[in-house]
Amino acid sequence: IVDAAYAMIRESDGGNVEIREVAEKAGVALGTAYRYFGSKNSLFAEAFEKSWIEFQVDAVAAARRGSTNLERLRFAASTMLERDSREREFRRIWKRDLRGDDDPAVVEVLGRCQRAGLGFFRDCIEGVDRADAESIALILASVVSEQGDRVNTGEVSLKEASREVAKVVRMVLEFNDPTRPESPHKD
User: pTM for the whole thing?
Assistant: First the structure.
């Protein structure tokens, strides 16, 4: 059922996918789909998680190309932005339907996805205190999400968004405040 929902969401091109159609594609009765998932959003959350897991396989491979924290985070963030631009329907469903849903099943799935995303960015960072790596991951995830929104609304191109994210990664990892007395940039 999740596989059918996943495929239909990917193919929907902005159209509304109904659980009835998913049940038909999966070859199960509508009641069976509701018995396993309880609601359309619960099913779609599971399909969103499937999309997220597939993304992580690509993102881990991209991050491994980097030899420094800066490179790994840039590769990871770029891969996430590219995925968001390709998987617009999942992003739309997440923003429109899932994010504000208080159904415990939906909240649980989205929580797993969020923890996995933060953990993924955190794991790209070596030689940094875990709490600091967690903060960096949270900042980066927020910036990538915002830039993904801007790409999907047509406000900026994917290339512009990737440049902005790369700039933020550099700023977070390398920035020294020149107004601090102990700054190496202070004359």
Answer: 0.79
